[in-house]
Specification:
This protein has five helices and eight strands. The protein is of the alpha/beta class.
């Protein structure tokens, strides 16, 4: 049963990857001081199903998702979720809407370690009748795109971000 599910998800990855983009925050500079993340995000069109990666020196920075514009603007660190701290955090967007991330170390947020992006809702990849997945393709609709992305993230070994 579990194996069957994994195989189904693995087959389902193919159409998903075609339209998904992987973003590395700050590119080779990563998530650190001295990078303008507003500029980095400029012109990028994030959408549900895309993957985003924060690379940083563990113990020097972290990634805290805050709840809104006010917390973001004031660098409020009282976010409802614990910060990500591993130094390499990769996840897939499973919901659309605006997302706000800051570094909660010392005054790093005030010094510009903050990223606000808008994630567009994405259409579920519609399996075509000719893609050869006749037995499983029909299940994608009932499987639910949300669960599908969670499964996709699990297979890729990355997290998900609401
Ligand atoms: Cu920092």
């Amino acid at each position: 049963m579990a194996l069957k599910l994994v195989m189904f998800i693995a087959m389902a990855i193919v159409p998903a990857i075609v339209g998904a983009t992987e973003y590395v925050v700050g590119e080779e500079k990563g998530w650190t001081l001295g990078v303008n993340y507003t500029k980095w995000a400029e012109g990028k069109e994030f959408k549900v199903g895309d993957q985003i990666t924060f690379n940083y020196v563990r113990g020097k920075h972290n990634v805290l998702k805050v709840r809104g514009e006010a917390e973001f603007n004031s660098c409020n660190k009282l976010g409802q979720v614990p910060p990500l701290t591993s130094g390499n955090n990769s996840f897939i967007f499973i919901t659309g809407g605006r997302k706000w991330y800051i570094c909660a170390f010392e005054d790093h947020c005030q010094r510009g370690m903050k990223l606000s992006i808008n994630v567009e809702e994405a259409e579920a990849p519609a399996p075509s009748p000719t893609d050869g997945y006749d037995n499983s393709a029909g299940n994608i609709a009932t499987f639910g795109y949300y669960k599908y992305l969670v499964g996709l993230a699990a297979v890729l070994g990355v997290g998900v971000m609401l």
